[in-house]
Write a structure and sequence with these properties.
352 residues, mainly alpha, two-stranded antiparallel ribbon, two-stranded antiparallel sheet, 11 helices, 6 strands, 36% helix, disordered C terminus
Length: 352
């Protein structure tokens, strides 16, 4: 592909802060009222694929020629900025993205319905990080299923033959009388009509999401110091470890929940432990686990640490924190939690 052969588009739109590349390209096709296949031909882009995954230098140059934006604008709009931090692009091949760590599935469709409505269907990149559960701007839990078909609303693949409708569900649905395996088409339900699940704007859930975003924002480009990326990945793994410990401690339902978790736990559906891997549930489950993890890390620097003491009391490790400082208890809990048998693969009563 020769980027010099790519001509300037007659109209374009500016990318929004934090927007994914796929969402930006959808916005351009909407402005031009053309299907994605026409834009791909103009830019000499591959006809299929997840456009928010990564962008090779030659494709970034073609986008720059077509939009008038610097080529350096586009790599930070892709998931490659977190390669080796929260996902492994090299290990994923052409299939579903592979998260760093053994426990998390990277979802395509978490979103804030209010953000979608306000921005006209523009999708944020961090929603796909695997660490997204609450919108700090609107103090809402994110939604990862369609309110109508109850499926994951994004496929990751652009709808090539028609103008995209980014506020609608892309999930495939099957007619009731269709033969097995035959698809009818796309759901098309408005994602902006999803019920809002508010959280306290100044509460621990939003604070936890801001803390996680601060870690992700350390890496704004695909390039960067390898040691720094490894350190961030370890910080996130520590949060993962504590989050799984907290969710395990919630099954069966405990008689006491620390104040930092009370609001988040109250939003869990009654059947949240059924047939779900730990931290592979929806944003409500992520909110509980990561709110607990961030609370522990913040509280361990103070003498009063109710969340930490609650986890220590729930752990199966003998003398995890008895007679020790909060930091020593945190360290012992982390060591105990790193053992595989401490985390049952599915939520449920803890293995003894």
């Amino acid at each position: 592909m020769n980027p010099a052969a790519v001509t300037r588009l007659p109209m374009t739109v500016p990318p929004l802060p934090g927007e994914s590349l796929g969402s930006f390209l959808d916005a351009i096709t909407l402005r031009l009222d053309i299907p994605p296949s026409d834009l791909n031909r103009h830019l000499a882009l591959p006809p299929t694929g997840d456009r928010s995954r990564s962008v090779p230098p030659e494709h970034a140059d073609a986008l720059a020629a077509a939009t008038g934006l610097p080529a350096a604008t586009f790599p930070p709009m892709t998931l490659s900025r977190w390669d080796g931090v929260v996902l492994d692009l090299a290990g994923a091949g052409a299939g579903r993205l592979k998260p760093v760590g053994r426990w998390r599935r990277l979802r395509l469709g978490p979103c804030c319905p209010q953000c979608l409505e306000d921005a006209g269907g523009r999708w944020q990149l961090w929603w796909r990080s695997g660490w997204a559960f609450a919108c700090p701007d609107h103090a809402l839990l994110l939604e990862d299923t369609c309110p109508t078909c109850h499926r994951e609303p994004r496929t990751g693949m652009p709808l090539q033959q028609r103008t995209p409708l980014p506020t609608l569900c892309e999930a495939h649905v099957t007619a009731p009388d269709a033969r097995p395996g035959h698809r009818r088409g796309y759901c098309g339900a408005p994602l902006t009509r999803a019920a809002r699940r508010p959280v306290d704007a100044d509460g621990p859930v939003v604070a936890a999401q801001r803390q996680v975003l601060a870690l992700l924002d350390r890496h704004r480009t695909p390039d960067g110091d390898r040691a720094s990326r490894a350190a961030t990945s370890q910080d996130l793994r520590d949060l993962d470890l504590l989050a799984r410990r907290a969710l395990s401690a919630l099954t069966p339902q405990p008689t006491y929940v620390p104040p930092a978790l009370a609001a988040a736990v109250s939003m869990l559906p009654p059947d949240w432990t059924q047939d779900r891997h730990v931290l592979d549930g929806g944003p409500d489950v992520l909110a509980v686990g990561l709110t607990a993890a961030v609370a522990v890390q913040l509280e361990r620097h103070h003498g009063d640490s109710p969340t930490l003491q609650w986890l220590v009391g729930q752990t199966d490790a003998p003398d995890a924190g008895r007679g020790r400082s909060p930091y020593a208890a945190y360290r012992r809990l982390s060591q105990a939690s790193s053992e595989r048998q401490q985390f049952p693969r599915r939520c449920g009563p803890r293995s003894r």
